[in-house]
Structures are given as structure tokens and as C-alpha cells.
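Subject: sequence -> C-alpha cells, single chain

Hey, anyone have a minute? Need the predicted structure for the following. Not urgent.
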Amino acid sequence: MQALRSHDQVYIRGLRRDIVVGRDAWGRSGKEQPVIINARIYTANAVKDAAQTDDIALGIDYSKLCKTLGSLMTNSESLHALAQSIATQLPHHDNITLEITLPRGVPHSPAGITYTTEYLLLTPPSNWRLHSLTALIPSLQVSCIIGIHPHERTHKQPISISLSFGTTDSRPILTCYQEVAQAVFDDVESSQYQTVEALAERVARTVTTDFEIYGVTVGVEKPAAIPGIETPGVKITRRKGFWEERKS
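Reply:
Had a minute. Here:
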């Protein structure tokens, strides 16, 4: 689904708390970990009215919004439960986007995992609908044998892997993202491919075959490959059953 972007917005970026959200990177329950939230409140009139009159009372008080958001960041059994709890208790406008990051929530991933949800708020205020959701593990760091040159067949080199799960794919990942990350890390670390394309497809197959995940977008970057640039890379999207369909 396309994101709802037709209205003005007020946002809070980088609100951080240490709370319990599901399991930590080591799979332990009940352990606090850092949680970072970005929130966007979309509104048809509040920003326009405040701009036209230069009257803060007609806008959205982002100081109060920040305090409210912080008070709603409480211990939760999962990322989805935390997002749902916050969205249904924030001041109601047209729609809300919540981006929740666990920067230490995933092994071998310096950026952790980010879960993004968009809620379309209807009337009465208690009537809301989840519009879209995505989950992103942006940067699994692993070294492996990759490339065609003689030195690349001898020495491992660093690879960065991203895993993105769309609207229909995200909920299952929320119960097993540590296991998915570890499985991908172990699989890639022991692999030997000549192309990043083949490696990306192997990762996609591991994710969709070994776990109850319908589809995934895999990015593979090889930062040491070409001097003078940040990195080359490839990105592919694969669904469960892709390989069986290709055979037929």
C-alpha cells in the first residue's frame, strides 16, 4: 500500500527510552533495551491554521506530544504491541506513522531492526485501522568468500546485508527476527559465491524456506569491491515458492 502523505505533519524524531520490548539480541525476555521512536502526526487543518494565524493554540503542541509519546513507551511483549498501544492512545488526527527502532535488538546488526506502522484514524476516535507496516533489518555485517578474482577466492571480505519485509510479510518476522538474523549470518559466513546476485538469492531462499515468512527483499552490498565509491550492491525481492515456480 502507498503511504498516506496528503496532509501536513508534525513529527517527533529520536525519542529514546530503555524499556522491555519482546526479547533482546541474545533472546532473553524481560530485559530492558534502548528503543528509539520517530512519530509523524498527519493533520488536514492544524498546521495550516497555526500558519495562517501565527497562533500556537491552533496547532499541535509538539512539546505535549513528546511528553505523551514518552509516557506511552512502556514495556510490551512485541514491537507490534508497542506500536498498536501508542497509536491508539495518541491524540487523534488524520493518520499516524510510527517508526520504532531497537538499535541493539538484532545480533550482528549495528542498526538493529526498525518497525514502521501507519494507522489511518477514522471517526469516532476509537475507530482506527492499520494501513501498512514494514520491518527492516538494515545492515547485517558478515564476512565471506565472494568474488571472481584470485585474492577474493582466498580471503573473506566484509558484506552488508539488508532484509526488508513488507505489509503482508512483517508480522511473522516480529516473533523470530533474532533467529532469522543469526541463520542468515551463519549461512553467509560459510558460503562461497562468485556473485552477489547468487548470494542474495541464497539469503532470500533461507529466509522464506526455513521460516514462516512469505516474502523478503534482500540487499547485498560489497563495500570493498571498487575503490573510490561507497559500495556497489544488488537488491532482490523473492516470495515463498519462487524457486519451485522457476523450475516449472
